# Entry
Amino acid sequence: MFKIRTKSRGSFKNFEEFFRRVRDRKYLEGLNKFGEAGVSALANATPIDSGETAISWGYHIEEIPNGYKIVWTNSHVNDGQVIAVLLQYGHGTGTGGYVQGLDYINPAMHGIFEQIAEDAWREVTR
# Structure
């Protein structure tokens, strides 16, 4: 059997306040801001043929056991295949050919993810 003891000095006021705001759902507004920014970045970066894939981006926020997560979605589907995924990773054609994918999602979201991390760190340390 192990016993763990900890000692601390100082105040946990900022830490406790941060978790109170998380528990009280105060961060949903910020998550919505990032959700919308991600939709815009993805729409602007999506290769355009008809434009349908670019305008089909959306997002929703899910509560998970230890917080929340943003889920970006694309509703442009053809024959059961999400076109945004086919554009990203490539796909075979009906005639035996192959269309090379184009990594457009990761570069589009890079700045959004950096801003989320920066804002989260600022919140935790304020």
